[in-house]
Design goal:
GO cellular component, one term: nucleus
CATH superfamily of the largest domain: SET domain
CATH topology of the largest domain: Beta-clip-like
Protein name: SET domain-containing protein
Number of domains: 2
GO molecular function, one term: zinc ion binding
Main location: nucleus
InterPro entries: H3K9_Histone-Lys_N-MTase (IPR050973), Pre-SET_dom (IPR007728), SET_dom (IPR001214), SET_dom_sf (IPR046341)
């Protein structure tokens, strides 16, 4: 099911979508909704996730500081500085203040320098040069416990500060990884260098229509299939198998793939005839049948994303509508994105929650939450297809059905959207987000709205 992170993007955010929408806009920090875009968030997340040895507590602190309004404002000032002489003592003191909060609580090492560089959108090598000023603070904090001091004149550090022996090891490590920091700088450059623009390698694959305002879609990476986060293992091989039907699955009820379905074969004339089926198991490349097999409805569907359009709604941000009529039971599209594990999802949600985003599906079909099963999630904040922009309705015209093709590994279920009724041309396509929060400000306008305020 779609995970409700309690609210959506505000209407002023540049990437309103599914997952986003004006519906639960938070007005307390409008600058955050205006400042962050999906690409910036994605770069931040991927870089912080690459620092693999940081603890969960530190990750949470880093995420929180990244969203901090104070550092949003500071970054904007730093990004517009053209020459080092424009960096005032005031600005340096603000950075020292942030770094000090880490030094007193965490072991200061090259990974932490990289992380702090990400937070303030500054090349880590510049963050490193602030350490010589910080050394005075650290020296004082250890003065009552640490008497041995080390002369760092041989390290080449600025001002050759005298500091406690307890942090000499950190300096030695920093000296050894300067080249690594330079590589890290180049990977982060788009964040901290205002002159570096994101690569425009993919043209927008969808029709977009906006007669409401001047907003444009944010830069996103559009994909036609799911891809795995680096720390998600491949599907288990024992779940990659197919049927052995010899008659191209003409005896459909006897097909072993169909027998995985809880309610039998759910299609008639290529259309879904019931939605209370649990999941759909289609034949695949391991089967003895070919693509004319009747159990390949999703794979052979005639509907495609080119028949859909992203458009600007009057009050709910971006939405999706169909440019052609859709018959009841038709497969409309698949929801795709980046497959992430529960820990990655939890750490990302710190950012998502603070930015009023709801950007992933829990792939929880068939899992017992009471047993603490480790489910995967589908994050579509940055890597996505058109379904990212589908809005919520309490009377949705699409239904969500999990399905399996190349693997029957429950963790790698895919998400399909089918028409619950006939849908006429130019009608908005909507989903039921299954939101449980009674305070949700729903703008679906349906007479069946579950969130209507009692008078």
């Amino acid at each position: 099911m779609l995970t409700d992170s309690s609210s959506h993007y505000s209407s002023s955010h540049s990437s309103r979508s599914i997952i986003p929408s004006k519906q639960t806009a938070t007005e307390s920090t409008p600058i955050l909704d205006q400042y962050f875009n999906p690409r910036m968030i994605y770069l931040w997340l991927k870089n912080i996730e690459a620092i693999i040895h940081l603890s969960q507590a530190l990750n949470e602190k880093l995420n929180s500081d990244f969203i901090s309004l104070e550092w949003v404002q500071h970054r904007e000032v730093m990004k517009n500085i053209k020459h080092t002489r424009e960096i005032t003592t005031d600005l340096i003191n603000r950075e020292i203040s942030l770094i000090s909060s880490y030094v007193t609580e965490y072991s200061f090492n090259h990974e932490l320098i990289q992380a702090i560089g990400i937070i303030i959108f500054r090349p880590p090598k510049y963050v490193k040069t602030i350490w010589d000023t910080l050394a005075d603070v650290v020296n004082k904090s250890h003065s009552s416990q640490q008497t041995e001091i080390i002369d760092l004149s041989e390290t080449g550090l600025p001002n050759n500060k005298i500091i406690p022996a307890c942090i000499k090891e950190a300096f030695d490590g920093l000296t050894q990884i300067e080249n690594e920091l330079d590589l890290w700088d180049s990977r982060l450059e788009e964040l901290w260098n205002i002159n570096v623009k994101p690569p425009q390698k993919n043209l927008l694959p969808y029709s977009v229509y906006n007669d409401v305002d001047d907003d444009m879609l944010p830069y996103l990476e559009f994909t036609t299939e799911n891809f795995k986060h680096w720390n998600v293992k491949d599907p288990a091989k024992e779940f990659s198998y197919g049927c052995t039907c010899r008659n191209n699955c003409r005896d459909i009820e006897a097909c072993s793939c169909i027998q995985h379905c809880e309610a039998g074969y759910p299609f008639k004339n290529g259309k879904l005839i019931r939605s209370d089926i649990g999941a759909i198991y289609e034949c695949n490349s391991f089967c003895g049948c070919d693509y004319t097999c009747p159990n390949r409805n999703i794979q052979n569907n005639n509907m495609n994303d080119k028949n859909l359009q992203i458009f600007k709604t009057s009050n709910r941000g971006w939405g999706v509508r169909t440019l052609k009529p859709i018959k009841e039971g038709s497969f409309v599209t698949e929801h795709v994105g980046e497959i992430i594990n529960s820990r990655t999802s939890m750490l990302r949600s710190i950012c998502y929650d603070k930015l009023n985003m709801m950007a992933y599906f829990d792939l929880d079909y068939g899992f017992d939450s009471d047993k603490g099963s480790k489910i995967l999630c589908l994050d579509s904040n940055y890597w996505c297809n058109i379904s990212r922009f589908m809005n919520h309705s309490c009377d949705a015209n699409l239904v969500t059905i999990p399905f399996f093709v190349e693997t029957k590994d429950m963790r790698f279920q895919r998400i399909g959207f089918f028409a619950q009724r006939d849908i006429s041309k130019n009608t908005e396509l909507t989903l039921d987000y299954r939101i449980q929060n009674p305070e949700f400000e729903c703008l679906c306008g349906s007479k069946f709205c579950r969130f209507k305020k009692k008078i």
